Model the fold of this input.
Amino acid sequence: MIDRQSLTPRETLAELDKYIVGQADAKRSVAIALRNRWRRRQVPEPLQEEIAPKNIIMIGPTGVGKTEIARRLATLAQSPFVKVEASKFTEVGYVGRDVESMVRDLVEIAITMVKAEEQARLEGLAEAAAEDKMLDLLLPPSPNRRGPLSDTGPEGATSFTLVTQEQHAPAAAAGDHEDSTRERIRQMLRAGKFAEREVELTLDEAKSMPMVEIMTTSGMEEMQSNLQDAFSKIFPRKKKKRRLKVPEAMAALKQQEMERLVDMDKVMKEALRRSEQSGIIFLDEIDKIASRSGGMIHGPDVSREGVQRDLLPIVEGTTVTTKHGPVKTDHILFIASGAFHVSKPSDLIPEMQGRFPIRVELQPLGEEEFVRILTEPENALTKQYIALLATEGIELSFDDSAIREMARIAVEVNENTEEIGARRLHTVMERVLDELSYDASERPEGSFVVTADYVRRQLQTIIEDRDLSRFIL
Done:
């Protein structure tokens, strides 16, 4: 597998540009952070462990690309990635999630990722084994067939007495005939000649175990997980006979073979290593756990500093116990983000500030950025709607003036109501294409062009009524 973490910062930036418009400073910072991981692995061993990742805080309003940058970076680097909201955690002693659960979630994601890679690597072997099992179902082997060694012994035990050549000759001839028949059936199976035929096979049922839920203070989630694992061993998987068509049976057999072939001990070991060395945890809404400066606020703020104190050892580097083994967080990259409208990064406790040395401010998006967002990225909204309506046989296209008009309206609504950044484009696009999406299956014409006039007609009433636009857009 190609080591995607060896990409240069310039290459990482180019990849991020395919999906995210603007925010060059933020993309530059995460590109350097990714490259530094590769650099650390090239450093000699004693010093390698001493080099800590430079965690990042992204500061900016909602909808400007903070989460998308972190998610795309993790996908690009093929790293385990988990997004958590800091406001959902509580300090030890309160009912709620404890901060260590984010590391356990990261490990589970890493296991899923590594297992999928192993299954892809073993797919060929699993497919061959599944094909052989299917041939056994379609053409059961002859019970009288014998090999060069006689398998008849006292009380059914295998005997190693060699049979004579005369005794073996008829069996060999029958075996050759059976082999040729089996190969003909194999070719027919591959050609799809048995697609409508049903076979009966025995499959493992999904694990059925009683649900165990513990409603108590934080820190008990691991106990709940361990109890469920214990019950799964007490209640083993049951076998069930099912009648399936050959293609479905092949898929089920292939999946069963892949589960058998994957070495889960190897998967666990690699997942733990990958979590420690290349995991990325995205801490969203970190401004919500910062105590507002200069205010005498009580109530919900009571546990804010407590959550920060609990987060601190995780970010600084500690060992978290998971059901798969201990995980050191020293080299996990933490990317935090927040709007910081009310509080400031300096309102975080000093120790927490020290663990996020890189701070990047993301800029609000204007009309030009919205035009680019609607057209340039590989997953641009216009491309998504074109693909969706193509399924109804409609060739949708957008006039340049229409795209600019939608961008202008999105900026105007953001300024007059709430600033939600590029997310406003989703609501504007949905309202513009609402009528077309509803009538698409009955429309006789095969093409439709969205113009600036059409955009204005669809949104005119909503834009003129400021109170209505607050609800609709």
About this structure: The chain is about 50% helix and 10% strand. The radius of gyration is 30 Å.
